[in-house]
Model the fold of this input.
Amino acid sequence: MSRPVVTRFAPSPTGYLHLGHAYSALFAQARARDSGGRFLLRLEDIDPGRCRPEYETAIYEDLVWLGLSWETPVRRQSEHLADYARALERLNDAGLLYPCFCSRSDIAASTTAPHGPDGPIYPGTCRRLDPGVRQERLARGDSHVVRLDMARAVSRTGALCWHDTARGPQTARPEQFGDVVLARRDVATSYHLAVTLDDHLQGVSLVTRGEDLFEASHVHRLLQALLDLDTPDYHHHPLLYGPDGKRFAKRDRSLTLRALREAGHPPETVRKMAGLLT
Ligand code: GLU
Done:
């Protein structure tokens, strides 16, 4: 038997869970259980515009119905903004961050660079902003995000590796994202920062998630090095596709766990449909 691992399922309460989530949650729980380890739940509720309390309640109900149990307390990201603020401060003190005042349309209009995994690669306009103008705009309270100076960050850490238990050893390639956003306009953190810090703080030793997030792990590995965080192993599992050949998404109402339950399917059927009978 492998060493005991700590895994987690980290949904965002922005819609009802669907079959793809069931697969991901069951996968994470099975890896913890089979190794004699621990399974945690985290609610990634940093998006104030899209997260709703009823979706959070539904996540608990749906997971219990599926037969899952997890350790308490559940970590809700919205309750830990001070942790993210401290991490940002540390990166800022190291001279690795800058405020970016560009709108999405400014970026779309100014960039001819290729798209990275998160969208168009930021052309670095505000990285080159005159320091006086930057201070003036900050003092005026102009709306902005906070970006990581990727080139400087990468030169600080040097080459980094991480391990995907499905795909094998990886050399980190965070540069493909360009200057990623680490704090959004509406909340002073971002997916990349919050997820990396939380996996460390919760002692997660095996991050399991869909392969759509494979590239994100390159950025997370960089943040671990910059913030002296532990580096877990990763396993990016295949995504489930619906009968129409498309990935399950929250907008597909018919295959939410809620809809399947209401249609009279027992949890065993849903576990089978998700491809895992555990
Ligand atoms: N909160 C993310 C989602 O719902 C998952 C993040 C992760 O597993 O790293 O897609």
User: Anything to note?
Assistant: The pocket of glutamic acid is lined by residues 10-12, 44, 195, 209, 213 (CB under 6 Å).
